[in-house]
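Entry:
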Amino acid sequence: MTNVNHRKPIAIDLFCGAGGLTRGLKDAGFKVLAGIEIDPTAARTFRANHPRVKLYENDISNIQGAQVLTDLNLKIGELDLLAGCPPCQGFSSHRTRNRPPSQNDKRNDLIFEFLRIAEQLLPKTIMLENVPALAKDWRVDILRNRLRELGYNIDKDFSQIKDAADYGVPQRRKRLIIKASRFGVISNPAELQRKSTVRTAFKSLQQYGLSGDPLHDTPEVRSEKVRKIISCIPKNGGSRSDLPRHLWLNCHLKKENSYRDVYGRMSWDLIAPTITGGCHNPSKGRFLHPDEDRAISLREAALLQTFPKDYKFFIEDGKEAIALMIGNALPPKFIKAHAKEYVKHLREIENEFRTEI
């Protein structure tokens, strides 16, 4: 067993997207050797921010563990952590709220591709993150049972639902985290008593439109009626329900009690709502700036996801594509909190191994 006390533990990030998981792993002390991503826009963003990580820009079903081991000069069992977030849109409550159940969405079976790579690499530890709805799906039972057969310790904390707000992320974001080790139990990180807020996330930003950062300065294009609606919503947490009815949109008049958060403002001293792929659009949720008469900028959305202020996105990819990458990302601070416990665990098992010999 390679000594993790004298080197950074090594990891691979499956379904790496724009790199939120990789950023969190690095911040916790991991060296991320490789990532896999099929989407070219996300892959380009990942490369720009993690140029030293080998990126397989391919369908994961085309990737074989033996080739990865050869490329990275590893043997079976040497990888410290296999991590990833299989695309979860098939389980997302945002997707299914007004649509038929989507448990048969083919993307849901990508969890088995994660399992296949785990079988081929046999990493020391595993971290899989996803939406909470996956926790009760039969696919997780198969994953749990197969990992147990492979020799992983499966305890009561194998599958947990956590709120990212409890770990320094300034937004409400409940996520499923699955963890396992071949060498015992990985501890849970302590929850923070003090929450980060919208104010703390935005405090370092320069004035919108004048910052020199295209991700923060790109102007909005809104109709006159929508601009009027936004300007009339009370500052610091106001809602469309605060508007006089003559300013309501027709769709809101027809469904008066649905989607109460749309065209709502964030509150300075509270956590933000869940940042989604529609985070730049006030019609998709409570995504208006607390004071200014606009939706939050893409940079503000990225900061609420806890990406570093200088994290690179290509504005020429378009606001829709960037918002989707940001909304789909794993918050680096959430991952960092959990990954630090993995680092401790790996060092503990290494010390035990050295004592035995």
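The chain is about 35% helix and 10% strand.
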